[in-house]
Design a protein that fits this description.
- This protein is α+β, with helices and mostly antiparallel strands.
- It has four helices and seven strands.
- The radius of gyration is 21 Å and the shape is elongated.
Length: 194
């Protein structure tokens, strides 16, 4: 593609791994079993909790499939996910990078693309990956080359922004570990307190 106006949306079906389907069925089946066999609990409360849990998981996934896209234009990059729309002008864009996806993700994509701003914040570009684009690396190189003209500067690394990116990455990993630890503590507490 030679122009800057581009839209990346779902072209191929997303695949869900079998272990995620199995875990979802086991957890959902356990909730249904608890709702139908627990004589002491209010069934209305369990049914309401089950409905909220299912809706909280299903609605964003359906909205992401319908709304999710990355739109690139002369003004900048716009990303749309299930709920939010985020626009970055070219002057706010620091870099566009492809990174190897972590193992265990839902998508088959090995490479995921992020746009970084001058504060070191990153935003995932929906459907801009090697699963949706047949010639992903060529498309990424072409997008970087064409967008450099609109940015008014070449893609150069700045040490202060790289430090911010590293700091934000480290902080997100720490918070991720805190959330996992809190979840494990709650699960262990539920096992021992019930």
């Amino acid at each position: 593609m030679s122009g800057i106006e581009r839209e990346y949306r779902r072209r191929r079906a997303l695949s869900v791994s079998w272990w995620q389907i199995t875990v979802t069925v086991i957890v959902g089946g356990n909730i249904v079993l608890q709702v139908t066999t627990n004589p002491y609990a209010s069934r209305r409360w369990y049914v309401t909790a089950l409905a909220v849990i299912v809706l909280a998981r299903v609605v964003p996934a359906v909205l992401y499939r319908q709304r999710g896209r990355t739109v690139v234009g002369a003004q900048g990059i716009t990303t749309r996910d299930a709920i939010r729309t985020n626009t970055r002008t070219w002057h706010d864009v620091y870099d566009i990078r492809a990174e190897l996806s972590a193992n265990g993700r839902i998508e088959r994509a090995r490479w995921t693309t992020y746009v970084y701003d001058n504060d070191g914040r990153r935003t995932r570009l929906p459907y801009f990956d090697d699963w949706q684009l047949p010639d992903f690396h060529t498309e990424l190189a072409d997008l970087r080359a064409v967008s450099a003209r609109h940015r008014g500067m070449a893609w150069e690394l700045r040490p202060e922004v790289e430090d911010l990116i590293r700091r934000r990455t480290r902080n997100s990993k720490i918070w991720g570990a805190v959330y996992v630890a809190a979840f494990v503590v709650v699960c262990v507490a539920v096992v021992f307190l019930t």
